[in-house]
Each structure stands twice: as C-alpha cells, then as structure tokens.
Write a structure and sequence with these properties.
alpha/beta; 8 helices; single chain
Length: about 240
C-alpha cells in the first residue's frame, strides 16, 4: 500500500516543526512548504531547511509571496517597532500579518491537490498564542469547508484534511510533544527579530522561553528569557 502524503507548513518555528514531526508519526510522507513573505525574521527559513534535513523530509518547497509590499504588520515593516511588553489579553498585536494564514493555506491546498496529498498539517495554536484570529478552531473549520467546495478533489470527496494537532495544546504541552517526537528544539527559530541570536524579549520569545522553563528545559531558553522569567516570578506582572 502506498504511504499517504501530507503537506506540512514548515515555518522553522517550534510549533510547525512539531506538527511536521507529528505528521510523520501519524504515518504520512511529509512534503514541506515554507514561505518567504517579506518577514524581517527570514532567519526562520534557514531553520526550516535544517529541520527538513533533520527530519528526513525529502521534498521541501520555499515560495516567495511578498506580503510586505503593502505593510500592515511590524513583522514585515522595518519602520514599525516589535512589541516587547508581553502579550496583552484580548488584543491583536502589531505582529499580526493580514491574511497570512489564509494565503498560506490556500497555496498548501493547491500543492496538496497537485501532489494528491491526503492532509495538510498546520502548527497553529489557540491556547498560548499571540491573539491572531487565523489561529482559531473556527477559522480552521471554515477553511475545511472551503477546501471541500473549491477544488476538484473536494468535489470528488477527496479534499485534504486540515490537521492542527497542536491547536488546543498549551505551549508547555507542545514542548513535551516536541521532545517525545525527537524535534531538535535548539534548531527551531521563533524570534520575531532577524538577528543571529533570538532576542528573548519579543512576544514569541517570551512565550517560547516561559514554556521551555516551565517544561524543565531552561537550558533551551534564551539567557534573556531566563532572566525575565526569574524577575517575573519575584514580581508577577499579569500583562506579560
């Protein structure tokens, strides 16, 4: 029997790498898809290439989709400052990129139909996340319906399933899952900055570092994150 295939959206971050490893554990042959969309942290694409090689993913596509040309996000506009004050409950941060996941999943659906893949694995998360509207289960359910309506495969009853194995996991749960699946966490890149080392101060670094520390893997956290976590433990700040 031919082994089923899955498209895995591989950004280079912890969540996407864990979702890719989960797809493999679930019995799929992964086809990785990454995007150069004008993000300031293009360093993540280097991480994606390393992760694909480490996980043994033979087919890896990197597409150029310039979402930076019209701005609207501090992730794509170097004139905007990245937030470093912690995640504010109920607020959508400036790092939200308008339409990003919608564009990415639409392209993944095209690739899945062309490659006759049965599933698309996404690393989106609706628990410990930055408040993005396109990381929610209801968004995913709506896109699944679109997948069934918008393609030849869907009309034939073979629309690929959108699988988000981490959607209801806490970040600590994701760290534990990544460790079980053998994800090389040190090779992943989550920082919004595009430097040589993660900054430890942006929202993404803060969420990641706290989870690593809470999961007992402070050795994988940034030194800035370890220091901030120690300070917040002594003087808790509910806004962080």
């Amino acid at each position: 029997m031919t082994q089923p295939k899955a498209i895995v959206l591989l950004s280079g971050g912890l969540d996407s790498a864990t979702a890719a490893a989960q797809a493999m554990a679930d019995g799929y042959v992964p086809i990785a898809l990454s995007f150069r969309y004008g993000q300031r942290h293009e360093r993540e694409l280097e991480a994606a290439r390393k992760l694909a090689a480490h996980l043994g993913i033979a087919e890896h596509h990197v597409m150029d989709v310039n979402l930076a040309q019209w701005g609207g996000s501090s992730l794509t506009d170097l004139n905007e400052n990245l937030p470093q004050d912690g995640v504010q409950a109920g607020a959508i941060p400036s790092t939200y990129v308008p339409g990003r996941n919608t564009v990415f999943i639409a392209i993944a659906l095209s690739l899945a139909e062309a490659k006759q893949a049965d599933a698309i694995y996404l690393g989106i998360n609706a628990v410990d996340y930055s408040g993005y509207p396109d990381c929610r289960p209801e968004y995913l359910a709506a896109f699944q319906q679109l997948a069934q309506l918008s393609s030849k495969a869907g009309l034939e009853g073979n629309a690929p399933q959108l699988v988000a194995p981490l959607v209801m996991d806490s970040k600590v749960d994701i760290v534990h899952r990544a460790l079980r699946l053998g994800v090389p966490i040190a090779e992943t890149w989550s920082c919004y900055e595009g430097g040589k080392e993660p900054c430890g101060r942006c929202d993404s670094c803060r969420i990641r570092d706290k989870a690593l520390i809470d999961a007992g893997r402070a050795d994988l956290a940034t030194w800035v994150g370890r220091r901030l976590q120690a300070q917040e433990t002594e003087c808790p700040n509910p806004a962080v």
